[in-house]
Design goal:
There is one protein chain. This protein has ten helices and eight strands. It has 247 residues and is of the alpha/beta class. A six-stranded mixed β-sheet has the order 3-4-5-6-7-8, with helices on one face. It has a two-stranded parallel ribbon with strand order 1-2. Strand 1, helix 1 and strand 2 form a beta-alpha-beta unit. Helix 4 packs antiparallel against helix 5 and helix 6 runs parallel beside helix 7. The C terminus is likely disordered.
Length: 247
């Protein structure tokens, strides 16, 4: 703390005010002591000294309270509703708002072999989860009606469907796989994902609704020697760690 020397402290709150700025004031005299000495030496009459003491007592200033600036919250410290208000992606905003509304961040992976099993699980856990993750290409008995039935359950229980498809082809092929084919994923899945080797098409005659879905990009899977593994590229030795980035 910085220390400053002054001759006279008028005892009106000055030292206390500047102490908040890291300055300590040292005074040779205070007004009270100065008046006492002058009165004792008969340099001032008692009436004048009384008026000075009265003035000083009536004109003391309170210390200035330091301005309290709340530290900025990190995303981890924010509530889901706060994060939803800041999200720029429509699907991310919807998901965070849903998590806040249902008071859950649970996601269930429906890794089952039949449509009936997946639908039964969705109906059972639906009230308690925000996301149901599917692998539609492992279903033995898939029919187009499955997507409609699952979407109805998502609407009934207010959860999002995440088709964990992991697209990994050129842009136009990914668009066709997403919007068409047997599964028509874009018709019933709110969320899907893609590897970094895939690219979104610049043109497509029937573009899928990218604006209504979110695509987590998988930079590296939980296996050795992926295209995104810097360790493998540099040393040909790999201990892979899953990394997911939302865009």
């Amino acid at each position: 703390m910085e220390c400053e020397q002054v001759l006279l402290d008028r005892e009106q709150g000055g030292p206390e005010r500047i102490q908040g700025d890291g300055v300590k004031l040292r005074a040779a005299l205070t007004v009270t002591k100065f008046i006492h000495v002058l009165e004792k030496l008969k340099k001032l009459d008692a009436e004048t000294c009384a008026k000075v003491r009265e003035f000083v007592a009536a004109n003391r200033f309170a210390p200035i309270a330091p301005e309290k600036i709340a530290p900025a919250k990190s995303a981890a410290q924010m509530s889901y509703s706060e994060r939803a208000s800041l999200a720029s992606n429509a699907m991310a905003k919807q998901l965070l708002a849903l998590m806040s509304e249902k008071k859950t961040n649970l996601s269930v992976a429906a890794d089952m072999a039949t449509c009936a099993e997946v639908l039964a699980l969705a109906d059972s856990v639906g009230p308690h989860v925000c996301v149901l993750k599917t692998h539609v290409d492992v279903l033995d008995d898939f029919t187009p009606e499955f997507g409609t039935a699952l979407l109805n359950l998502a609407s009934k229980h207010n959860f999002l469907i995440f088709e964990d498809r992991k697209f990994a082809d050129i842009g136009n092929t990914v668009a066709m796989q997403y919007a068409g084919g047997v599964y028509k994923i874009a018709d019933w899945s709110h969320i899907t994902n893609a590897h970094t080797v895939a690219t979104l098409p610049t043109t497509h005659p029937n573009p899928p609704p990218y604006s209504t879905s979110i695509s987590p990009v998988i930079a590296e899977g939980s296996f050795c020697c992926s295209l995104a593994c810097r360790v493998c590229l540099s040393r040909h030795v790999c201990v892979s760690v899953p990394v997911v980035v939302c865009v």
